[in-house]
From TrEMBL:
NADP(+) binds at residues 10-15, 67-70. Keywords: Amino-acid biosynthesis, Cytoplasm, NADP, Oxidoreductase, Proline biosynthesis. GO terms for biological process: L-proline biosynthetic process. One of its GO terms (cellular component) is cytoplasm. PANTHER family: PYRROLINE-5-CARBOXYLATE REDUCTASE, PYRROLINE-5-CARBOXYLATE REDUCTASE 3. This is Pyrroline-5-carboxylate reductase. Its EC number is 1.5.1.2. InterPro entries: 6-PGluconate_DH-like_C_sf, NAD(P)-bd_dom_sf, P5C_Rdtase_cat_N, P5CR_dimer, Pyrroline-COOH_reductase. The keyword NADP applies. Pathway: Amino-acid biosynthesis; L-proline biosynthesis; L-proline from L-glutamate 5-semialdehyde: step 1/1. The gene is proC. It is found in: Cytoplasm.
Length: 271
C-alpha cells in the first residue's frame, strides 16, 4: 500500500464501525479520525469527536468517509466544509451510503468539482471478509483511485463498476444480502429446533454450515451449481428439499423480487 491515508470517518455506527474495526485490524491501518455522537464506538488507535465543531480546524483528511444516514449527509458536509475551510480543499469524499449521488455530495461539500468515490461495502468488512463495489467520479485522480481501492481491499474483495447506477445492483447483490444470509441462519436454527434438535446444537450447525459453504465458495473456483450438485445425491434428501426451494415461485422468484425491491429503494434514496 502507498503511504497510509488519513481518514475522517463521519458516523461510526453499524457500517462505519464495521469498516473502522476492519481497518484497525488490517495489515496497513490508515490514520483514523472519527466523528460520532456515541463516543464509545471508536476502535483502538483512532481519535474520536462527538460532533463536527469539536474537530481541530487544522485537520486535513485525504478522504472524508461518509457512513451516516443519507438524509443527514448534506447538512453534515456543509457544516464540515465551513468548519475546515481551505483544509478540506484537496480531500476526496468516500461515501458508503446507499443514497445520495456524487454530484449532490460534491455540491454539499462546497465544491461541485470535488472528487467523490462512491462505494457499497457490507458488514463482513468487520472481519476482513467484506465485498465492496466502487464507482469513481470523473474528478478522482489516479492516486486517489489506488489509495481508495487498496483501502477497501484491506477489508475484503473489491469490484470497480463503470457507472454510478451500477451501485444499486451492488446493494442488491452484496450490500443488503448479508442480512438474507443471517436470516437463513435464523430460519435453519428454528427449523432444527422444530424438528427436535436442542437449540444450541441447531444454532451451532446452522452457523457452521453457512461458514463452511461460504468458505468453499470463497476458496474454490467451482461454480455454485457444481457445489450444489455435489451435495445432491440422486433421489436423496437434498433433491427432496431442493424440489421445494427451487420451484420458480419459491427461492428464484423471492430472490429476484427482493433484489428488485432493494434497487427500487436505492433509487428513492439516491436524489
Ligand atoms: N448497515 C449496513 O449493513 C450498511 C450500511 N450502509 C450505509 O451506511 C450508512 C450508515 O448506516 P448504519 O451504519 O447502518 O447506520 P447507523 O445509524 O448504525 O450509523 C450511523 C452513525 O452515525 C451517527 N451520526 C449520524 N449523524 C451524526 C451527526 N450529525 N453527528 C455525529 N454522529 C452522527 C449515528 O449516531 P445516532 O445513532 O446517535 O444518530 C450513528 O452512530 C447508511 O448510509 C447506509 O446506507 C452501507 C452498506 C451496508
Ligand atoms: O439497508 C440499507 O439501506 C443499508 C444499505 C445496504 C445495507 N444496509
Amino acid at each position: 500500500m502507498m503511504s497510509g491515508p488519513t481518514l475522517l470517518l463521519l458516523g461510526c455506527g453499524k457500517m462505519g464501525g464495521a469498516l473502522a474495526k476492519g481497518w484497525v485490524d488490517a495489515k496497513h491501518p490508515p490514520r483514523l479520525i472519527i466523528i460520532d455522537r456515541k463516543l464509545q464506538n471508536a476502535p483502538g488507535n483512532s481519535v474520536i469527536y462527538r460532533q463536527v465543531s469539536d474537530l481541530p480546524k487544522d485537520t486535513r483528511p485525504d478522504f472524508v468517509v461518509l457512513a451516516i444516514k443519507p438524509a443527514a449527509s448534506e447538512a453534515m458536509l456543509r457544516e464540515l466544509s465551513q468548519h475546515l475551510g481551505s483544509n478540506l480543499e484537496n480531500s476526496a469524499l468516500l461515501s458508503v451510503m446507499a443514497g445520495k449521488n456524487c454530484a449532490t455530495l460534491a455540491k454539499a461539500s462546497g465544491r461541485d468539482d470535488r472528487a467523490v468515490i462512491r462505494t457499497m461495502p457490507n458488514t463482513p468488512a468487520s472481519v476482513g471478509a467484506g465485498a465492496t463495489g466502487i464507482y469513481f467520479s470523473p474528478q478522482v485522480t489516479q492516486s486517489q483511485k489506488q489509495l481508495a481501492t487498496e483501502l477497501m481491499e484491506q477489508v475484503g474483495d473489491v469490484v470497480i463498476v463503470p457507472h454510478e447506477d451500477d451501485l444499486r445492483s451492488v446493494i442488491a447483490v452484496s450490500g443488503s444480502s448479508p442480512a438474507y444470509v443471517f436470516l437463513l441462519a435464523e430460519l435453519l436454527e428454528k427449523a432444527g429446533t422444530e424438528l427436535g434438535l436442542d437449540q444450541n446444537a441447531s444454532r451451532k450447525l446452522a452457523r457452521s454450515v453457512i461458514y463452511g459453504a461460504g468458505k468453499m465458495l470463497h476458496d474454490l473456483d467451482d461454480d455454485a451449481s457444481v457445489l450444489r450438485n455435489n451435495v445432491t445425491s440422486p433421489n436423496g434428501t437434498t433433491a427432496a428439499a431442493l424440489k421445494v426451494l427451487m420451484t420458480e415461485e419459491n427461492w428464484p422468484q423471492s430472490v429476484r423480487k427482493a433484489s428488485q425491491e432493494a434497487v427500487r429503494r436505492a433509487k428513492e434514496l439516491d436524489d
